[in-house]
Amino acid sequence: MSTANAPRPTVIPLTGPAPARSRRPHRVLPTLVLLLGALYCLVPVAWVVIASTKSNSELFTTFTFAPGSGLLDNLRDLFSYGGGQFGQWALNSLIFAGFGSLACTLISTMAGFALAKYAFPGRQAVFYAILGGVLLPGITLAIPQYLLMSEIGLAGSYWSVLLPSLISPFGIYLARVYAASAIPNDTMEAARIDGAHDARIFTAVALPMMVPGMVTIFLLQFVGIWNNFLLPFIMLSDERMYPLTVGLYTLLSKGSGTPSLYSLAIIGAAVAIIPLVVMMLVLQRYWRLDLISGGIKG
Amino acid sequence: MSTVTDPRTARRTRRRWVAPYTFLLPAGLLYLGFLAVPIGYAIFLSFRGLRVSGTGPFGVQEETWVGLSNYAATFADPEFLAGFGRLAVYGFIAVPLTLGLALTFALLLDLPRVAGARFARTAIFIPYAVPGVIASLLWGFLYLPSTSPLNFVLRRLGLDPINVLDGSMLFPSVANIAIWTGVGFNMIILYTSLRGIPGELYEAARLDGANEWHIAYRIKIPLVGPALVLTGLFALIGTLQVYGEPTTLRPMTNSISQTWVPLMKIYRDAFVRDDLSLAAASSVVLALGTLIVSVLLLRLAQRRTFGES
User: Fold this and answer.
1) Quick one: which of A45, A157, A76 has its CA closest to B134?
2) What are the pLDDT digits (tens) for A161-196?
3) B138 and A47 in contact (C-beta within 8 Å)?
């Protein structure tokens, strides 16, 4: 049983409770505007799914939103391209995003917990350093990070993309905000009186209470790493190590010379976004994005 | 009662210090290694450069301390400044439209009795899951004259096809990609923030005769002020680091140069021209610029949203 003032895990920002049925009529204009917005957001996704069914010749001759007949051929071409490079890119993306965001979540949670629940010399300085890190655009760091990585001989390795993804000042900030509100001091004190060490307080008391916040940090970081382009683009030179973003970009830039690669880039894009969209739809109930909007008040 | 010199108390106090530092250690090391040290290294590099030393035909190139000359070169470079100019045009389109649409959608979602709200909320959020590079690829094909649905219709009607990746349409076309990927995320942040407003406020306002428009304008928008500032800050930082979208569109059009935005020029200086010092100086300028703009925005917003109350 969690304590009374721990946030309920059922607070679901994306799928709130259905509005109570009312006899008054629905509003028409707001619905219309919202559906227009939905249409705007879905059209490119629908386009890529439809275009991925077209053969190369159909791509340039038939109407854009008319389905074609080449889906299976395209899929076969995609997965056989460059000796199965596409599958390798997908696997790389999964390794970078999966491992990176898991480790980042744990590191951020530990740091956020320490910042929220302990008084120690230098706490304020650490916190300001983290705020500075939040404001600093991560991408302007990519070039100095590359220079340093090549100094120590790590540029071009998996580590060169993975290691910089493990530190997220924003993740630490969110963890601190969440720990401050989710872990009551009384519970910490009670555990301490019961003789628990700090490590045990963290694993047995704090971690379970911080799970909703951790899921949010994990998803933000997962999407962030999965979508990252510049860092792997700069760090990696071996095509087999590319994540999907960089791989598809190289396909497209080669495609401007050989239009046959266009249909590969299109089906590649379709295959690349479907897992992420599915993950988003399935996991959206666990997001606590109110953390982000609530955090700035404190 | 224990005294101050009780060794047990001393040990416990020390342990209380050790624990938070231990929890902070991994994050601290990574922060140093991948944030602090790279910044320090970039600053160091930005003051260095290749200079010919020795005299006559046998002078050798040598890396030495060159002071501020890389910074002078950065600020004197018309392409770098033009890049900021293009960034400004792009930002003036992308940031207000992203925030405006996000706020509009969030307010509409928050209205009582709106049909299809749940579907729209999910649909508008979906582009957030699409990587910027893939979003550019999708829109690129929708823009490309040979695959654009608009041009297909225009040709059928016997009209001239238009190229939205050229001329005055280029900036809105690139900005549209950022708007498309950004609206949903910002909408959700604003929407969750709206839902945190206590309902009694609305009831009191309704009793006073306020309609939904008044409530939105007088209560909701001021109360989500902090969330708006936050989303604005993210949008601004995102604008200054635009890189993937124009880079992906480049193979599809002749209108996007290799140095179209500052980060593209920095990339070219570092990796095509091998002028790491100049790239480092430009990186430092870009990072400092972002930091200054962010802090100014936060200061301004703090005075606006919290100063009045």
Assistant:
1) A45
2) 999 999 999 999 999 988 998 899 999 889 989 888
3) yes
Beta bridge partners of B60: B53
* Per-residue pLDDT in tens (0 to 9) along chain B, 309 residues: 444 455 665 565 666 678 899 999 999 999 999 999 988 888 998 998 877 766 666 667 777 888 899 999 999 999 999 999 999 999 999 999 999 999 999 999 998 888 888 899 999 999 998 988 899 989 988 898 877 888 888 888 888 878 888 888 899 999 999 999 999 999 988 998 888 888 888 888 888 888 888 888 888 988 888 888 888 888 888 888 888 889 989 888 888 999 999 989 998 988 888 888 898 899 889 888 888 888 888 888 777 655 443
Residues of B in contact with A280 (CB under 8 A): 125-126, 128-129
Q: How far from the centroid of its chain's Cα atoms is residue A291's Cα?
A: 16
Is B133 within 8 Å of A249 when comparing Cβ atoms?
A: yes
Tokens 């935005």 belong to which residue? Answer: B261
Residues 6+ apart with CB under 8 A from B12: none
Place of tokens 């992203």: B98
User: What amino acid is encoded at A255 in this protein?
Assistant: G
Q: Measured between alpha carbons, how far is B87 from B81 in angstroms, rounded to an integer?
A: 10
Mutate to test the interface with B, among A60, A110, A134, A143 (most CBs of B within 10 A): A143
ipTM above 0.95, yes or no: no
Shortest CA distance from B301: residue in chain A: A296
Instruction: Determine, for residues B189 and A293 on separate chains, whether the beta-carbon distance falls below 8 Å.
Output: yes
The verdict on a CB contact (< 8 Å) between A248 and B31 is no
Count of CB atoms situated within 10 Å of the CB of A82: 14
With CA atoms as reference, report the closest residue to A218 among A104, A121, A86, A91.
Answer: A104
At A257, give phi and psi (nearest 5°): -90, -35
Length of chain B: 309
Whether residue A221 contacts residue A168, with contact meaning beta carbons closer than 8 Å, is answered with: yes
Token output for A48: 């890529």
Which residues, at least 6 apart from A275, have a Cβ–Cβ distance to it below 8 Å? Answer: none
Q: Which long-range contacts (CB under 8 A, 24 or more apart) does B209-218 make?
A: B212/B111, B216/B107
Q: What is the pTM of this model?
A: 0.84
**H/E element, B307:** helix B276-307
Q: Please give the DSSP secondary-structure letter assigned to residue A27.
A: B
Chain A positions in Cβ-Cβ contact with residue B142 (cut-off 8 Å): 43-44, 47, 64
Residue range A77-106, pLDDT digits in tens: 888 888 889 999 999 999 999 999 999 999
Q: CA–CA distance from A119 to each of A160, A233, A262 (Å)?
A: 35, 41, 58
CB count within 10 Å of CB B41 equals 16
Which tens digit of pLDDT belongs to each residue from A122-145? Answer: 999 998 898 888 877 666 688 788
Nearest to A135 by CA among B287, B43, B299, B305: B287
φ/ψ of residue B61, rounded to 5: -75, 135
